[in-house]
Amino acid sequence: MLLFIRHLVAILVLPMTMAVFVPIWIARQNRVTLDAPHGPVGILTVALGAVLLIVGFALFFASLRRFAVEGRGTLAPWDPPRRLVVRGPYRFVRNPMISGVIFLLFGEAAVLRSPPHAMWAATFLAINLIYIPLLEEPMLEMRFGDEYRQYCGHVRRFIPRLKPWTSGENTDRI
Question: FRET label pair with 1: which of 81, 91, 120, 150, CA 20 to 30 Å apart?
Fold first, then answer.
């Protein structure tokens, strides 16, 4: 029960703020509403947005589950996983949770057909392109040492592998 509460707090503070509260604020500030699409471009844009939302939710929740079950921690920097998580979507890419949120943000922008939301998604992406290598990864390397360095040698930060990596694999180094 305590782990559930820890996850709930982390979700409310971090991804809910970035993927729900900020987009609602952007929509209100820019008078963005959810309107039915018109024409083939509008329909395709909304369909693409729906696909991005589905992929984003799937990545986010699969990552969150791995953090809870395998890592015994949360997505929050103040309550991180106690063990390095390298299974599930982490076998393909090092940051599937952030990737999931980025897919959600771009999905929201496409479904709403909203340039301000697309700017927010691009800003969030840019922040993470800076934050992850400069702050998050050095902290992970300090906590998990050689295990994390080996993982980084085989699994890219944002671009997924075509074949899943398994711990102990010595081939296909990137």
Answer: 91
